[in-house]
Amino acid sequence: MRIYDDIQLDYQDVLLRPKRSTLASRSQVDIIREYNFKWASSAIKGTGIIAANMATTGTFEMAKALEKHNLFCALHKHYDAKELVVFLKENQKQFKNNDLIFISSGVGQNDYDKLADVMASKLVNNICIDVANGYSPYLIQYVQKVRKQFPKALIMAGNVVTGDMTEDLILNGVDIVKVGIGPGSVCTTRKLTGVGRPQFSTVIECADAAHGVGGMICADGGCTVPGDVCKSLCAGADFVMLGGMLAGHEESGGEISKKLYETNELAAKDNGEISRIVQEKLFKKFYGMSSDYAQEKFYGGMKNYRASEGKVVEIPFRGDIEHTILAILGGIRSAMTYIGAKRIKDMPKCATFYRVNRQLNNIFGAE
Ligand code: 5GP
């Protein structure tokens, strides 16, 4: 039995070391990066945050809100080809191009047919090929097929967690390898199967492997606060994909529910009767794409050879996405000033990490 003894780390196991820098303020840093890819023909400018292609976060509304800040969105795969094309046309009018939009695809024949339909519109060039287990032979075969058919497309594919498979995917036509198995906020893969790898170590190894062969990576899952996004970029991620951090907003998918809470405070009614104050709170549903709930909603039930690898949660409604976006971008700018990175691309070479036992002081709650 072989056991890897190297310590495997998550974002919460490290902190960035501040450094002397010549940058006097956050306004001196540049968070827009020009991406030039191994296979895709055209360069793209943006900040490498991507909304996850989950039904709750990869929505049209989310895409528009993110695009205003030059951030990316991987649209979920439950929109049909017609809906996608209508959106892409309209979006192109508003934003001049669809450079920041990814169309998602599984690896089945239906997925391919739909992808081909949407690509035929010539309105979009970015494809996100997504399977839970990127080690399956179907992924590489599908990547080869898509690359052959769309030689100039930007292809992101995954998910894997090791350098060897990252290189394999890139050499077979992928521009951006999506990395992460099990770190997601509504993922239960690790619990159910025991498979996975701590995300910070995954990012370091896969970024090194990808960059060695001219490719890039997208760190997918496990970010809980803006600081995790900063750590991910510093560890070498070219893109960071977010689900949970973008969920529960106006622009997110998922049903809204209202709950009533009796507080400990008392109030007098007009008739003098004293009763506890009742507060109303709104919640929005957020669910894993392989949860029972999603399988039921999109496929009319779970196939009996599959098990749910995702959970369903109700999170307090967080309003407009704008304030969350600004917090993330503010965090990145500030981290860059702390470590002396003028450009987002320079973050890994400016970063040094401390391994820590405890990163946050939660005496007044986890917020
Ligand atoms: P988060 O940012 O919420 O931590 O992670 C988002 C990522 O979780 C997604 O991009 C996707 O890779 C992963 N994910 C989404 N739904 C599921 C699911 O049902 N099961 C598993 N294993 N992973 C999921």
Q: Any overview of this molecule?
A:
The protein has 367 residues and is α/β, with parallel strands linked by helices. It folds into two domains: 16-252 and 321-355, Aldolase class I (TIM Barrel), CATH 3.20.20; 256-316, no CATH class. 32% of the residues lie in helices and 23% in strands. It has eleven helices and 14 strands. The protein has helices spanning 60-67, 81-95, 109-120, 137-149, 163-171, 189-193, 199-212, 226-235, 292-299, 322-339, 347-350, and strands at 14-16, 33-35, 44-51, 71-75, 101-105, 126-130, 154-160, 176-179, 216-220, 239-242, 256-268, 274-287, 312-316, 353-355. The strands form three sheets. It has an eight-stranded parallel β-barrel, surrounded by six helices. β11 (256-268) and β12 (274-287) form a beta hairpin. α2 packs parallel to α3, α5 (163-171) packs parallel to α7 (199-212) and α8 (226-235) crosses α10. The radius of gyration is 21 Å and the shape is globular. The two termini are 42 Å apart. The mean pLDDT is 96. Bound molecules: guanosine-5'-monophosphate. Residues 52, 54, 132, 159, 180, 184-187, 189, 220-223, 241-245, 288-291, 309-310 line the site of guanosine-5'-monophosphate.
Most strands sheet: 8 strands, parallel, barrel
Strand order of the largest sheet: 3-4-5-6-7-8-9-10
- Spell out the CATH superfamily of the largest domain: Aldolase class I
Number of contiguous helices: 11
CATH class of the largest domain reads Alpha Beta
- β-strand amount: 15-25%
Tally the beta strands: 14
Poorly predicted spans: none
- Specify the overall morphology: globular
Average pLDDT, all residues: 96
CATH architectural designation of the largest domain: Alpha-Beta Barrel
Helicity level, as a percent range?
A: 25-40%
User: Total domains, how many?
Assistant: 2
The radius of gyration computed from the alpha-carbon positions, rounded to a whole number of angstroms, is 21 Å
**Which structural class matches the secondary elements?**
alpha/beta
- Topology order in helix (H) and strand (E) letters: EEEHEHEHEHEHEHHEHEEEHEHHE
Distance separating the two termini: 42 Å
